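=== RUN LOG ===
request id: a7f3
mode: sequence -> structure
chains: 1
length: 120
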Amino acid sequence: MKLKGNYSSGVSYDIGDVVLFTDGFVYHKQYAGGAGIPPTDTSVWGKVNQTLAEAILMVIDGIGIANSDDVSPSDIPSNISDTAILLNSSTADSTKQFLITVDDDGDITATEVEAEGAGT
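=== RESULT ===
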């Protein structure tokens, strides 16, 4: 499968190409056919299953964000690293933070992060 982005009637797609159509659904080309055959034509195209469609839509959104002039460094979350996520406690009025990590077995650990100078 090759993601081709938004469908265009002037483009000739290959079997396996994936497009987002104006109806908001993601389709993949299953059979040969020339340019201009809309993805709603089931003799050539098929809908992608919901799980894959959601992943594809996230990729399309990410590409749009990356290509946008509206993105600034402040839009990028600062609580994420290559190995952990820093989250605030969900308890009302709590100021605690936790470092969330996952090991190779899939075990998740939440370690409380103490503020600098705390306990001194």
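=== NOTES ===
The chain is about 15% helix and 25% strand.
The longest strand covers residues 97-102.
=== END ===
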